[in-house]
């Protein structure tokens, strides 16, 4: 693949970003992807803080992450990101994760909507942003991330959480990374201890608010080491997110 119109950011994995095996966690990988996207915005003079002053921002509505392996403590990685396509209000962000030898160890794809934070509704993307970003039509993952993932009504594994103040991000809702944390917490312990998250495919449906109690529901998917997930607000029919995960043995 010959790359065009992309942005690269390098990272070196720090101690607190790794698990007991010395490997980066899925939560950290998502955080690094988010940091790369933020720096890509900064590089075209539209930093997230500049956007906040105008009460606008980017909201992830669906996405997939696939990791063939997780980087080790002190390992240097490069995340390459680009926009593969966009409409007036939304765009597809592609990501490839390289190790120091330029081997691909992971990839991710997200559908992001430009958003009016106060009015809580989509907004046309600034023309200046589209001109400076341009786009590169290749996809990092061939996956339909708009396809619906059904919500669970009952589950074999359920965990309950309260939405705390520090769970809320600058867009005034629960950050997408928090949903992954809640999903992993409801995975059986034997899976988390002996397997790594190979793929997560998620949909963000509605917003959890500060003070809400949310339930993380998990069922086995019928396929070995594959699970279906739902995050919902306790005591209501409000579904915040749905996802499928696939796990592989370390």
Question: Which key phrases capture this entry?
Answer:
eleven-stranded antiparallel beta sheet, alpha+beta, Thiol Ester Dehydrase, Chain A, globular, 2 domains, single chain, lipid biosynthesis, fatty acid biosynthesis, 250 residues, acyl carrier activity
How would you describe what is shown here?
Keywords: Fatty acid biosynthesis, Fatty acid metabolism, Hydrolase, Lipid biosynthesis, Lipid metabolism, Transit peptide. This is Acyl-ACP thioesterase domain-containing protein. Pfam families: Acyl-ACP_TE, Acyl-ACP_TE_C. The structure is a single chain. This protein has about 250 residues and is α+β, with helices and mostly antiparallel strands. The protein folds into two domains: about 5-135, Thiol Ester Dehydrase, Chain A; about 155-250, Thiol Ester Dehydrase, Chain A (Roll). About 20% of the residues lie in helices and about 40% in strands. It contains five helices and eleven strands. The chain has helices spanning about 25-45, 50-55, 125-135, 175-185, 190-195, and strands at about 5-10, 55-65, 75-85, 90-100, 105-115, 120, 155-160, 195-205, 215-220, 225-235, 240-250. Strands 1, 2, 3, 4, 5, 6, 7, 8, 9, 10 and 11 form an eleven-stranded antiparallel β-sheet that branches. A hairpin with a 5-residue loop joins strand 4 (about 90-100) and strand 5 (about 105-115). Helix 1 runs antiparallel to helix 4 (about 175-185). It is globular. The two termini are about 30 Å apart. The mean pLDDT is about 95.
């Amino acid at each position: 693949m010959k790359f065009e119109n992309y942005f690269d950011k390098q990272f070196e994995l720090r101690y607190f970003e790794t698990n007991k095996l010395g490997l980066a966690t899925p939560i950290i990988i998502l955080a690094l992807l988010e940091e790369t996207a933020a720096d890509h915005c900064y590089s075209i003079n539209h930093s997230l803080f500049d956007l906040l002053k105008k009460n606008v921002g980017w909201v992830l509505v669906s996405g997939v992450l696939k990791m063939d392996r997780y980087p080790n403590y002190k390992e240097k990685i490069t995340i390459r990101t680009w926009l593969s396509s966009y409409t007036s209000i939304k765009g597809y962000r592609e990501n490839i994760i390289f190790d120091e030898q330029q081997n691909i160890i992971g990839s991710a794809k997200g559908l992001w909507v430009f958003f009016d934070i106060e009015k809580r509704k989509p907004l046309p993307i600034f023309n200046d942003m589209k001109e400076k970003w341009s786009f590169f039509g290749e996809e990092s993952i061939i996956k339909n991330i708009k396809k619906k993932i059904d919500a669970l009504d009952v589950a074999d594994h359920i965990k309950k959480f309260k939405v705390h103040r520090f769970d809320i991000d600058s867009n005034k809702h629960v950050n997408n990374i928090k949903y992954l944390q809640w999903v992993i917490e409801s995975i059986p312990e034997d899976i988390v201890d002996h397997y790594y998250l190979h793929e997560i495919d998620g949909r963000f449906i509605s917003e959890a608010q500060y003070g809400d109690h949310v339930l993380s529901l998990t069922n086995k998917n019928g396929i070995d080491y594959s699970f279906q997930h739902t995050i919902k607000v306790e005591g209501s029919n409000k579904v915040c997110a749905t996802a499928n995960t696939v796990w592989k043995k370390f």
